[in-house]
């Protein structure tokens, strides 16, 4: 069994480099600790879903929040054989997703049981609020992930 820091670093590498979908979008782990993650999605013009408004595609928001919740769930695991998959994902779109800026999602584990992890997530366009101002998310979500053990380790160099 690897130590916690090694597992967290391995989770970040796996999420960024070994999942083709995430690699395609350039999704990055901006911060990770047990039960919490911040992801960064670099801006690209092909993320626009409504060029008239303009606004981010809702599917991009969903992808960003689901990935953040999944990585937060993974960050609670103690072995590189643990896995999770999405059972339920709910997203509330609070306004049009911003265009032209990198996007971020923060996820926190609300509760972890033996077979299920519950997470809450927020999507926003700035990493940190300025001068103590409250960050304004453009979407929030919650998700439930199942936990299971696989035959092969997830984390590899």
Feature tags:
157 residues; Thiol Ester Dehydrase, Chain A; two-stranded antiparallel sheet; 3 helices; 8 strands; globular
How do the helices and strands line up, and which of them pair or pack?
Layout: H1 4-18, H2 20-25, E1 28-33, E2 36-41, E3 48-50, E4 55-56, H3 58-74, E5 82-93, E6 103-112, E7 116-124, E8 139-149
Antiparallel strand pairs: 1-2, 2-6, 3-4, 5-8, 6-7, 7-8
Quick recap of the structure?
With 157 residues, this protein is α+β, with helices and mostly antiparallel strands.
Q: What does this 3D model show about the protein?
A:
- This protein has 3 helices and 8 strands.
- The chain starts with a helix and ends in an 8-residue tail after the last strand.
- The protein has one domain (4-149): Roll (Thiol Ester Dehydrase, Chain A), CATH 3.10.129.10.
- It has a 6-stranded antiparallel sheet, covered by helices on one side. The chain has a two-stranded antiparallel ribbon with strand order 3-4.
- By secondary structure, it is α+β, with helices and mostly antiparallel strands.
- The radius of gyration is 15 Å and the shape is globular.
- Helices cover 24% and strands 38% of the residues.
- The longest helix has 17 residues, at 58-74.
- The protein has helices spanning 4-18, 20-25, 58-74, and strands at 28-33, 36-41, 48-50, 55-56, 82-93, 103-112, 116-124, 139-149.
- The model has no long low-confidence stretch (mean pLDDT 89).
């Amino acid at each position: 069994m690897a130590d916690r820091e090694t597992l967290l670093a391995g989770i970040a590498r796996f999420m960024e480099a070994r999942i083709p979908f995430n690699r395609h979008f350039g999704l990055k782990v901006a911060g990770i600790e047990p039960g919490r993650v911040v992801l960064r999605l670099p801006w690209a013009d092909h993320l626009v879903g409504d060029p008239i408004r303009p606004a981010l595609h809702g599917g991009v928001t969903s992808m960003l929040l689901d990935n953040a919740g999944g990585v937060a769930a993974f960050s609670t695991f103690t072995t590189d054989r643990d896995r999770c998959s999405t059972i339920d994902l709910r997203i509330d779109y609070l306004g049009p997703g911003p265009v032209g800026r990198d996007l971020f999602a923060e996820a926190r584990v609300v509760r972890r049981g033996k077979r299920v992890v519950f997470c809450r997530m927020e999507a926003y366009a700035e990493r940190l609020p300025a001068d103590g101002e409250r960050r304004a998310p453009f979407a929030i979500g919650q998700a439930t992930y199942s936990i299971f053990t696989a035959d092969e380790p997830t984390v590899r160099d």
